[in-house]
Amino acid sequence: MEKPGDELAHILVVDDEGAIRYSVSKTLQRVGYHVSAASSGEEALDMLTNEHFDVVLTDIRMPGISGVELLASIKDKSPDAIVILMTGYASLGTAVEALRLGAHDYLVKPSSSQDIRLSVSRGLERARALQRRRILLDTIQSSVQELTGQDLDEKDKSDDTVNHRRRMPPKPGTDLGTMTLGPLTIFPGRYQIAVGERPIDLTPTEFDLLLYLAAHRGRVVPCHELVREVRGYVVEEREAREVIRPHISNLRRKLKAAGQNPDLIVNVRGIGYRLSEQQRE
């Protein structure tokens, strides 16, 4: 089902066969999408240089630049781009490679109009979730900087130990967007956090959960809200608890393995999760 606002999305359809380009484009135009088309990977790259597209649907087998090569090029320039691959020659190896390179979906031609629209709609949901994540990162960074400044104002600003813990200088190769949250150092571009010198690799979902809880600390966040804001879809609270529980469990396990108190994330039974204020040392 298309969501309100989807009709504003700009879609690029890439296929060397004119009939397929026309058919897929019409399928999407009928539900209100703004659709452009390219007959080759080379033409698509030129268009992508000059225009923004919310979703790119591309055939895999094309003369010149293939769909998989186009996918890799798009992801290299824009890691969050939503790309859907289409093929009339389905194979497990190609599907695995496409997903490994970051394809959102993999459609076998001829695909029904319903399947095409559903895949695009889900891609747009994912795009919106990624956009919310970027806004969330900006909000958290501002909040952390404000909280850090307040903490330092309450203490002796000449205390070099506190100053070092709160404002650790970036090490060579460290992202400029690094944030400090209590005992944790957060590296937004790498889905990674660190406790002291010890790095902790997180999945994108674990990372986004931690940041969302940090942005909303001081209140208990229900699971359906976590699913909606972190995963990008809507479910009832009961189902949401089953979705979120394993991610929280894995996140706690990784914190514990790094020597950090796993109870930084508190389960308020029957309501949701909150980030413990104990982390603000």
Number of domains: 2
Category from helices, strands and their pairing: alpha/beta
- C-alpha Rg (nearest Å): 22 Å
Query: What do the pLDDT scores average to?
Result: 77
Q: Helicity, in percent?
A: 40-55%
**Largest pleated sheet:** 5 strands, parallel
Termini separation (Å)? 47 Å
Q: Any idea what the shape is?
A: elongated
Enter the CATH topology name of the largest domain: Rossmann fold
The total count of helices amounts to 9
In CATH, what is the class of the largest domain?
A: Alpha Beta
Summarize the structure in words.
Residues 1-5 and 150-176 have low confidence and may be disordered. The protein has nine helices and twelve strands. Helix 5 crosses helix 7 and helix 7 crosses helix 9 (237-257). It is 47% helix and 18% strand. It has two domains: 6-127, Rossmann fold; 168-279, Winged helix-like DNA-binding domain superfamily/Winged helix DNA-binding domain (Arc Repressor Mutant, subunit A). With 281 residues, it is α/β, with parallel strands linked by helices. It is elongated, with a radius of gyration of 22 Å. The longest helix has 42 residues, at 113-154. The strands form three sheets. A five-stranded parallel β-sheet has the order 2-1-3-4-5, with helices on both faces. Strand 11 (265-268) and strand 12 (272-275) form a beta hairpin. The N and C termini lie far apart (47 Å). It has helices at residues 18-29, 41-50, 67-77, 92-100, 113-154, 160-166, 204-215, 223-231, 237-257; strands spanning 10-14, 34-38, 55-59, 82-87, 105-108, 179-181, 184-187, 192-195, 198-201, 221-222, 265-268, 272-275.
